[in-house]
Design a protein that fits this description.
heterodimer; A: FAD/NAD(P)-binding domain; FAD/NAD(P)-binding domain; Alpha-Beta Plaits; 4 domains; four-stranded parallel β-sheet; B: Rossmann fold; three-stranded antiparallel β-sheet; 8 helices; binds iron/sulfur cluster
Chain lengths: 450, 218
Amino acid sequence: MTIALVGSTPVNVILEKEFAAAQMETITVKSNELQRVSGHIGDFRLQTLDGERRAGVIVVTEPPEAKLPGIGHALLDSDPVSHPHTKPVVLLMDYEQESRQFMTPVALELALFLARRRRTVFFLKRSVKTAGTDQERLYQEARGAGVVFVDYDQVQIAETDQGFAHVSAQDESQSLEIGPCSLIVAETIHPGKTGALADCLKLRRDRWGFIDEYKHYLYPVMTSRRGVYAIDTLRACCEPEYLEEAIAAVIGDSAEQLTADANLLYVELDKEKCAFCYTCYRACPHAALTPNQAEAVMEPWEEACFGCGICVSMCPANALQLTLEKPAQGASQSVQIFCCENSGDTAISRLQEDLAHEGLTVSQVSVTCGGEITVERLLQALRQYEKVIAAVCMDDACQHFDGNRRACAQTERAVSMLEAAGLEPGRIRFVQLSQGMPRLLHEEIREALL
Amino acid sequence: MIVAEQKPIDEILRTLDGFKNVLIAACGTCVTVCMAGGEKEALKLAALLQMRDADMKVSVVTPKRQCDMEFVEEILADAAEHDVVLSLGCGAGVQFMSGAIDNKLILPGLNTKFMGVTQDIGVWAEMCQGCGDCVLEQTGGVCPVTRCSKSNFNGPCGGSSDGKCEIDTEVDCGWQLIYDRLEALDQLQRLYQISEPKDWTTSRDGGPRKVHKKEMIL
Ligand code: SF4
Ligand code: SF4
């Protein structure tokens, strides 16, 4: 299978080698040459300035934009996966302005971590901050582990021929020249090109504009789109373990995703009903829908779909349906509860004994994501049940980015419709929780039943 | 696209008072796209009506459009089986259905608002008032009739401030948009010409309008 490396950092050389060892061919596409990306895992089409390139998997290696040259650059001839670096790492504090207080312990810990892995580490600083409780201890330990602390008045960073930084630092009496393999600076790093790239690849970004790859439930390299991975090249340079893990995740995850029965739950479209309104295309967090211009209908890609149901609930024409709809469980006549499988579902399973003990029964519908919960579903459920509860993930914890917020908006609308129709609005309840919060759900259920 | 909004639920309920057998007719084109009267909205309403009155019989049909005979014909049989039709089409759809189904009340479920565009999921904006004599070539593609609250033709009124209109700080001043656009295109000379008072007979003032495309008519 071919892997497209989008971005051209020196880390690509290592990636090419590693992927080749795993029998995967790589092609490199420069970010600024990428115009459009369509397709899905196993069959991506990358429209570039020199025509279409095809790949099964895309790996983004474009680092965020930093103000200095050489940040996060690994040496071309080095191989952090199998050999320790011989060149030093420079941590540069207080460069443009005095670094913020909280950055000092972060930088110290990183320096300590690297020094313990036998890396030569220079810690360049203008001012000493030991105010934090643990900071003095960290300094001591870092010194003990061999981190070289340098106080500087002036520092110059130059890019060398090979595109790497050369650092020279001076104070009153002496000057120091370092040719580091990576330079880590305590300055704000901007999403820069990764922002534009994210748009082109239809990837979700976090609130700061970075490609969202740090959600705790994702592998360290996963993005919102199946088969598109983002490697943090800044981190890869100083943490060989990370790069190793990242490469393994790309290979392992793509192989798993590509197996024939990996995806049973996906959306299907009724072409007769589709109004070609693009709502699903805009709302899908996983870029799993594509316009079919010839037939003037949207087309879902089952290979890319996570079955979150967000598009199903957003489609105004009722044209989309999930392939699997889980039947309700439990014999209650009075309460139906819609549980997101990432939170409410587990929470309620932990409550079964307590509920049985108290003689409380509910009818439980498991949904892949709160995004599946709609006004129609809530109102339909109310025709049969006295109360309905929507139990979805906490803020920022939605695996499909905004399914929980959509569930909230849909519930609010349903409640206002009940109110306007002179019906009891309290019949619909909404709760946000995590898997480990069965007590909260217990309370909700008790209140609903009483 | 025609943009509409659902009428308040209590108003719909009032108009349906006394009917026990209701057909909700959604429309599969403009009002589906603007999320006012598509199949989804019809299903929500149906569920709500039945919650209010368990004896009420409510069915939903969704012709592709309510403004063309062939599509309306598809639902004539359904209409015949109900006491009343609640149309979730635009005003044109309601009237066209009334013409096609002459023995039944066709009630409107929407307030038809304007001709507009989709700005974002769930957000639509008015762009054209159908004045019948387009002036967009003079104004850099920004309509003074629609996007200036006062439909001024020769520049902004005194209420334009910081690019916003005096009627509401959320509303852009149409003339600011016109000026900025023409400036960006280096076409400000288009504004040197004074616009004469507009002849509104091509608009609503000339009475109900019709278009005849002669070569298509035998
Ligand atoms: S179910 Fe979710 S992932 Fe699949 S197409 Fe719909 S919105 Fe996208
Ligand atoms: S949201 Fe529904 S109607 Fe709109 S394009 Fe998607 S499938 Fe078609």
